[in-house]
Specification:
The chain has helices at about 30-40, 105-120, 140-155, 175-185, 210-225, 245-255, 275-285, 300-305, 345-355, 360-365, 365-380, 385-410, 415-435, and strands at about 60-70, 75-85, 90-100, 125-130, 165, 235-240, 260-265, 265-270, 295-300, 310-315, 335, 355-360. By secondary structure, it is of the alpha/beta class. The strands form 2 sheets. The protein has a 7-stranded mixed beta sheet, with helices on both faces. The protein has a 5-stranded mixed beta sheet with strand order 1-2-4-3-5. Strand 11, helix 9 (about 345-355) and strand 12 (about 355-360) form a beta-alpha-beta unit. The protein is globular. The relative contact order is 0.13.
């Protein structure tokens, strides 16, 4: 098993490359978020006096995470937990393990969680966490030690009524179980509500694993209906084919759509007649990615963005749709399954092309919605059926999208700006009602 370095490089550009949040030539995720806030400020009326609240995280914690490796050496990793806003409730957001995690990224992701939670009107603020590490270089025991030490380091600011982590990129149910157990051991009692996305047997919720993808599909159906696009027979392209993209792809295929192109970290594939999605999901589970799937032709990364499709779903990482590839997109609408996949410049290009962009902060909110259900169930120790959860999820997503669509029509703005108007109004109204202390 290859070992990770003591301090992984900040980016794939090399150990001496500036991280994006220090590079004056790179806007970075936090810069993208700030631009989005600036675009919505003119629509906030009297609440605009509080807008600086949205531009400053409430709390940002950077921690050293030292662990003993299997060979007896000690490695150090940098970890983060950012609480962007808690005006409407405890912070809520995932934890990602990735070699390119930066403070700028985690700050932006925490802010987008604030917007997302307010957009679907669940009583949470925004939070996010991460460790700069390539988890593929760690053994299972090293991964567990990393998780437990990180949980202990951020334990001073998390808790069932303070900040509730969840899975994100390269973290899963097992990681959440380790986090819950570590926090519980440190406080001397079992606290199932400290994280969501847990295994069912330790307080997890039915339907949580598929929730984000189901939400993406639900929102896509709502958006498609409003522009007169039939899902049956629609051509779909998906970037990322894990929990989000894979679940959404399956639901689209079940509804009669053709998934014609898929791209992930292993490569890209296409089939003009439609991919066999169940077989592709089996292939991904067996091999770790879509590359090599026999029911398709391989395609180059740049070809994916030009795929002839009706619906495009970026469901991988942030910053994927840029001014360099937005002009190639042929889809009638793009549903953001990932967090922050589109830059402001790309947004403008797609708007000029007439592509309907349904933003992440509404499109992928299914995960946090069912996380809220899980949190409520943990507090009550009463658990719902999967059908009940899915019905509640679909209803909340439909209601949230209807409100955003109405706001977009009223102000003649994009769905992204409309979602920010709805969410920022709710956040800043709570801030205004609470006032300042002391």
């Amino acid at each position: 098993m290859a070992k990770s370095p003591t301090q992984p490089p900040t980016s794939s550009a090399g150990a001496h490359a500036l991280p994006s949040y220090l590079d004056p030539n790179h806007l970075g995720p936090w810069g993208v978020y700030l631009q989005q806030v600036d675009r919505v400020t003119p629509y906030l009326g009297p609440l605009a006096k509080w807008v600086e609240t949205l531009k400053r995280p409430k709390r940002a914690l950077i921690v050293d995470v030292p662990i003993e490796m299997d060979d007896g050496s000690v490695a150090h990793f940098e970890g983060y937990r950012v609480q962007h806003n808690t005006s409407r409730g405890p912070a809520k957001g995932g934890v990602r393990y990735h070699q390119d995690v930066t403070l700028s990224e985690v700050m932006a992701l925490s802010a987008w969680m604030s917007i997302k939670n307010a957009a679907v009107n669940v009583p949470y603020g925004g939070g996010k966490g991460g460790i700069r590490v390539d988890p593929r270089t760690l053994s299972p025991k090293e991964l567990e030690r990393l998780t437990r030490r990180y949980t202990s380091e951020i334990g001073i600011i998390i808790g069932p009524t303070k900040d509730i982590p969840a899975p994100d990129v390269n973290t899963n149910e097992k990681v959440m179980a380790w986090m819950m157990d570590t926090y519980s051991m440190n406080i001397g009692e079992t606290a199932t509500g400290v994280v969501t996305g847990k295994p069912i047997d330790v307080g997890g919720s039915l339907g949580r694993r598929e929730a984000t993808g189901r939400g993406v599909f639900t929102i896509a159906c709502e958006a498609a209906a409003r522009i007169g696009l039939s899902i049956d027979g629609a051509r779909v392209a998906v970037q990322g084919f894990g929990n989000v993209g894979g679940t959404a792809g399956k639901l689209f295929a079940d509804a009669g759509a053709l998934v014609v192109a898929v791209q992930d970290h292993t490569g890209g594939i296409a089939n003009d007649q439609g991919l066999d999605v169940p077989k592709l999901l089996e292939h991904v589970r067996a091999t770790g990615g879509v590359a090599g799937f026999k029911g398709a032709e391989p395609i180059q990364p740049a070809e994916f963005w030009g795929a002839k499709c009706d619906i495009l779903i970026p469901a991988a990482l942030e910053g994927q749709v840029t001014k360099d590839n937005a002009g190639k997109i042929q889809a009638r609408m793009m549903i953001e399954g990932a967090n922050g996949p589109t830059t402001p410049e790309a947004d403008d290009i797609l708007n000029d092309k007439g592509v309907l962009v349904v933003p992440d902060v509404i499109a992928n909110a299914g995960g946090v919605t069912v996380s809220y259900f899980e949190w409520v169930q943990d507090f009550s120790s009463f658990f719902w059926t999967e059908d009940e959860i899915n019905q509640r999820l679909v209803q909340i997503m439909k209601d949230a999208f209807a409100g955003v669509w109405q706001t977009a029509q009223q102000h003649k703005v994009s769905l992204r700006t409309a979602t920010f108007i709805v969410a920022c109004t709710r956040i800043l109204h709570a801030r205004d009602l609470r006032g300042l202390y002391p």
